[in-house]
Amino acid sequence: MSIATMPDHGVKTHEPRFNPYDDNGGSVVAVGGDNFVIIASDTRLSTGYSIYTRYQSKVFKLSDIAALGCAGCWSDVLTLTRLLNARMQMYLHEHNKEMTTPALAQMLSTMLYYKRFFPYYVSNILAGLESDGSGWVYSYDPIGNMERSKFSAGGSSGALLQPLLDNQLGFKNMENVDDRSISLEKALAVVRDVFISAAERDIYTGDKIHVTVITKEGIKEDTLELRKD
């Protein structure tokens, strides 16, 4: 009897497959204003129902005016940020100046596209100040497509966070709003609130919020508590 005509006795075979990726969770939020930019992440690093650490920030300082938030496969995060820092050091030695935020954003897009056939399993959000002092946020898909905006969310709870940012900072579905500017105090309050909301629904987001505020005066960092269960 040929293989094609063998009867099916209901026995299901399992085909083993190699998966090089692991999602280690985490969420990132960034907000830009007229003279500041905020980028924040939670500090929980986990896989499945196991928590590796409760103290790992996912925000990486790149220069005095820019920082990168990465969530996803942690080994890919470390590889990508190491290569990005190496490229920035090469630029600094060749040109005797740091990369501007738009140049840095374009370089990251190119690096992601270069790996498009075996992409980094990372959700990237770049936040930085531009030449006029305004803060902008660049978000990416895994193969380098880039969007420039004033606020963005990514990571395991990105789909939960983005609609709230659209409402509170983009004023979507809000009427009779006279002042549509984003102040630093309001941005910080919204960032705190969206992470508290995400921690209630996403088991991969929690423990603490690591907040990085970038202004012309420098970079300030702070941590806020989240639920730990």
Largest sheet geometry = 5 strands, antiparallel
Based on CA atoms alone, the radius of gyration comes out at 20 Å
Number of helices: 4
Element-by-element helix/strand order? EEEEEEHHEEEEHHEE
The helicity comes to 25-40%
What distinguishing features does this structure have?
single chain; alpha+beta; five-stranded antiparallel beta sheet; 4 helices; globular
Report on this structure.
This protein has 229 residues and is an alpha+beta fold. 28% of the residues lie in helices and 30% in strands. It has helices at residues 74-95, 101-114, 158-168, 184-201, and strands spanning 27-32, 37-42, 45-47, 50-53, 59-61, 66-72, 122-129, 135-140, 146-149, 151-155, 208-215, 218-225. It is globular and about 70 Å long. 40% of the residues are buried. The mean pLDDT is 92.
Short characterization:
The chain is an alpha+beta fold and 229 residues long. The protein has helices at residues 74-95, 101-114, 158-168, 184-201, and strands at residues 27-32, 37-42, 45-47, 50-53, 59-61, 66-72, 122-129, 135-140, 146-149, 151-155, 208-215, 218-225. Helix 3 (158-168) packs antiparallel against helix 4.
Topology diagram in text:
Elements: E1 27-32, E2 37-42, E3 45-47, E4 50-53, E5 59-61, E6 66-72, H1 74-95, H2 101-114, E7 122-129, E8 135-140, E9 146-149, E10 151-155, H3 158-168, H4 184-201, E11 208-215, E12 218-225
Antiparallel strand pairs: 1-2, 1-10, 2-11, 3-4, 5-6, 6-7, 7-8, 8-9, 11-12
Helix pairs in contact: 3-4
